[in-house]
Amino acid sequence: MKKILSILPLLVAVIGLHILTSATDTMYYLTQMTMSAYYSLLIIGLCALMGYAGQISIGHAGFFAIGGYISAALTTRSLIPYQDSFLVKLFDSAGFLFVGQDIYGDSLLVFTPWAACGIAVLTAALIAVAIGIPVLKLKGHYLAMATLGFGIIVYRIALATEYFGEADGISEVPAFVLLPGLSVSGSFGDRVQNYYIAWGLLLIGMLLLLNLMDSRVGRALRGIHGSDEAADAMGVNTARFKLQTFVLSAVFAAIAGVFLTHYNGGIGPSEAGVMKSVRYVAIVAVGGMANLWGTLLMGIVLNFFSLRGSFGSYDDAVFGLILILIMLFAPNGILSINIRSCLRLLPGRNKADREGEV
Amino acid sequence: MTLELSIQYLMAGITYGSIYAIVAIGFNIIYNTTGIINFAQGEFVMFGGMIAITLLNFMPLPLAIFLAVAITMLIGALIEICFIRWLKSPSVMRMVTITIGISILCREVAIHIWGESIRSLPYFFGNAISSVPVLGARISPQVLWVVGASALMMVCLGIFFKTTAVGREMRACASNRKAAVLCGINTQNMVTLSFVLSAGMGALAGCVMSPITYSQYDMGTGLAIKGFTVAILGGLGSSGGAVAAGLLLGIIEAFSVSVVPLAFQDAISIAILLAILFVRPQGLFGSKEATGLKEF
After folding, report:
1. Contact flag B232-A145 (C-beta cutoff 8 Å)
2. How far is B69 from chain A (nearest CA, A)?
3. Model pTM?
4. What is the count of structural domains for chain B?
5. Quick check: B233 and B20 in contact, CB under 8 A?
6. Range of B211's domain?
7. How many CB pairs under 8 A join A and B?
8. What is the tens place of the pLDDT at every residue in B261-295?
């Protein structure tokens, strides 16, 4: 209950922003807020893995891409040439497929978005298990390198496989009809409902993680972060908890990938790029590592400004500068900035305060 | 595959491998004194090449390269003094994030100075089509420059660390920083020196490779990833390991072209490296202790 209460201000802010933008006729901001929400979903998942379980991953753009690409491919690539094969018939009889039309009017046999979403997320989870078992035995920089390697492999496969559209990526991805009348798509009329879908998803994710980190699992994870050996000695199954968190964060990333791909109507290989993953890690760091709220804030703010293109060609430069400044002056993340201690650093007030401290 | 073709692939592998090894040693030098991975390492290579190309308009090639290396060393020193030196007992993650920020900034500076165009230094001897015969294969003389410069740098670095007083102080700082302080070594200066050294090595590598691989503002990222991979595979902090792992990666890459399409080259080589890492989690030549450090 307390957790639900802590989410409330965020809910109010989300609704407030909608009212504010519609009152000031600036509803176009909602588009970037929607996209930022999906990226932030990935980032809070990564925060659980990095900040709480203490396992770095520089490969989460890979899971995002797995979700996005599989969902995009299954909902756009027609299965008509293979419709006599056993597997396609099996999927068809399970109700996973439907006959649609492409933009030229040719008929298509493709997966329904729900089925595609399920398969995409499941695939990401299975890959996370397969990768996680050997990778999570590594530590520190070695773990960073292994996850980075995974990210590169996903990127290269996306870039080099014809099925995934090579350098062009996949476009013309259809809308994801969640319920009748409620669909994830980039069409103009759906802007408001997509804003709420994205933020609803993010709120649910946030609530889930806040509860999880405050539970037995969360305590076990913090134990692992403090010391693997000590947690092991206390009877915590460290390998299992690490793997579960890894898979959970991969699922968050994949869901974000699926939804954002349907929202944008396409996905390209740059979404799987290594610098994307590095960016996510950096955002978790400036958010304060084990601080879901700080990470959420930085995720929304930094992604929003970068998607809006507020800084034009200096966008990356500003991002780099913010990273450096926060890490130099607020090593425990954005929410650790203490106004009073900042004032103390100003010249003039130095002496009196320092003497007071001693 | 004929013998000549194999040698051709082998030489290509050694060329790229020695570049990776140099970048990896740059990572190792800074890792040894600070325990961090400097994500801006690839940007040093980029700066070296780009500055030399610009300076070439005003002066002969050797002088341009010399000045480019010197300027990049200065940049390395400035980065350390401005962003790392004055932090009080910073955590590893904090410093790594700062270097990520620095690498992004360096790229942005480069794109605003030089634009997105691809440039290159001229071949040091001959031109793009001249070649020397080696065991029946024909290779570009620039390849010899790359391999030679890499080998020379490694030898000089080895001598520097083994025989000079400053080199010994740096090694002391690497093996136990607290003990080094107690012995009266100024460890802060050693950290600055490590940034200067790895910036200089990166810059020289950037100059000698420029005629073959070309220079562009964003070349650093790819190189840093490969260099990082090699540094880890060789066992962080081990120079010999970095050379062996670098050559291994280069040769795997070169030969993989004959088996799989070029587009999958990176995926295959990295997958092989990951497989090695799963079997030997401490890298090829690393010690168990290094992996035991908890850094995140």
Report:
1. yes
2. 24
3. 0.86
4. 1
5. no
6. 3-292
7. 133
8. 877 888 888 888 888 888 887 777 766 554 444 34
